[in-house]
Here is the input.
Amino acid sequence: MADCMKAAALLRGWDDILVLCHASPDGDTLGSAGALVRGLGALGKRVFFACGDKIDEKYSYLFEGLAPLGREPAHIVSVDVATPSLLGSLEEEYAGRIDLAIDHHSGHTLFARESWVEPDSAANSELIYLLLQELGVSIDKAMADCLYTGISTDTGCFRYANVTPRTHRIAARLLELEADGARINREMHESKSKAQIEAERILMESMAFSCGGKCAMVQVPLSIYERTGVQEGDLEGMAALPRQIKGVLLGVTLKEKENGLVKGSVRSNPPANAREIGESFGGGGHPGAAGFTLPGMTLSQAAEKVEAACREQLLRLGLL
Amino acid sequence: MADCMKAAALLRGWDDILVLCHASPDGDTLGSAGALVRGLGALGKRVFFACGDKIDEKYSYLFEGLAPLGREPAHIVSVDVATPSLLGSLEEEYAGRIDLAIDHHSGHTLFARESWVEPDSAANSELIYLLLQELGVSIDKAMADCLYTGISTDTGCFRYANVTPRTHRIAARLLELEADGARINREMHESKSKAQIEAERILMESMAFSCGGKCAMVQVPLSIYERTGVQEGDLEGMAALPRQIKGVLLGVTLKEKENGLVKGSVRSNPPANAREIGESFGGGGHPGAAGFTLPGMTLSQAAEKVEAACREQLLRLGLL
Here is the structure.
């Protein structure tokens, strides 16, 4: 297993580098990529990035002014990617060719030639901060904004149990480097359209409780988009809501997708464990937050399956 | 004006100290008091605290194990109190006798014999942290929990523009001193009862927009408590919601109280300024968050007055 010094040494020797994000990209994989591409660019390297899914408009500032993929890469680096299937549509082309994986998921599957994995890091962007320091990159405002975005989004704005003293110290440094923390937090955590508020209201009303109120589940039917005018990306924040209710240990959001797929998000309060639920359905994540995809079923079939898994975990923990 | 060293020197020479919080107490005034009482107690001093209003159950851990007011104080210290009227029911007894005011409000009125005021400090609890350091107090877990609570609540969990690098560095240190950040954040920012969710749903539905969507206002009638079963303290979080809507620069929450009083909260996004609105109605606060009380009017009369003040500010700023 590589460490920060080893990762830096490898990158120093490379040029024409492609940085890969995970599919359904979030602020941490995109912030990691944005900062790494800028940092390596500042060292004079040709570097570009790719993501298997469309990047939501709200993240566009992370990549402002960066050149798109220009040529065949000589080296490939993945950031915040736990396992090759999470590359999505890029899996087939790149999965077997990744030279360096930088990740913070405890379920990381060591798929790359070299891997630097720190599961205790709240955000992957913390590792990119350390890496840029190690590489001697002078972190500019754009990089600081990228790294702050990754840290803020993966910690629920410094709220979750994954936050360590290091997380706060890096955030302090990023503010000194002119990261616009207040604006980023507003965009990432506060800004909602009226359509979003209406959709959240409808979905919260439909929330179902089970396991004596310890499990709360929201189902998001495809029809919500037409009914309210929200975009799918607008409902990312929904995943956090069921867990906010007093007494809830496992909060589940199930989203209906095209082609009979159901995408699930689990958030947990200790001692419940979201990752276990995610992994039991072939997905993954962190102890407090995980995701998975269920193929070939309706929302209500998925709800039944996931509720059973939640009940099983709570029973096993002696909580029912 | 005193500074941290001067405040510490004064406190070293004192005993039988009463620490006063502001009325309608929040996490910062209570966290400041809880930590200061414990810290001075650790130095062997007799010290107790008082607050003009009942302290909400969710803050009870801040004062666990502390002795109640026991004797006539020889010295009085106020924490997070901008002006004597904010002492509420304690104003009459104590307002003229305060020896030391420690505060971070830019509208602080210098009412005490000595004052240490740092308006650039995101939370008053940051000042108490520095003071305990200066006093050589060994900060234990209970003090760290108090200080973390104050910082987390006054910054919206590190979200607002008032957060500085120092805020994050102190938070890092408090986590090392075993502050239970994740639990505190859950209790302060995430935990909602079903009644709360129902009440928020009703109130959000009634939200009114004006000034071309730049001003959003929620009215909280007394009837909401009976209708949903929420307690008044359960609706503190409401104040943050109107500002979260895209395009809103001034978010206002008006709560009907007994005796024809209306309590207002304003939250703003730059360049709008909440404090100006608060002060124009005889209240106060910070640039991003302020409060005030309007006597002798109905909710809709108050709404009309406040909307006019918001419109006037937005016009003056050239935003309408």
In short: The first strand of chain B starts at residue 17 and ends at 20. Chain B touches chain A at residues 156-161, 163-169, 171-173, 175-176, 181-182, 185-186, 189-194, 197, 201, 204-205, 243-246, 269 (CB under 8 Å).
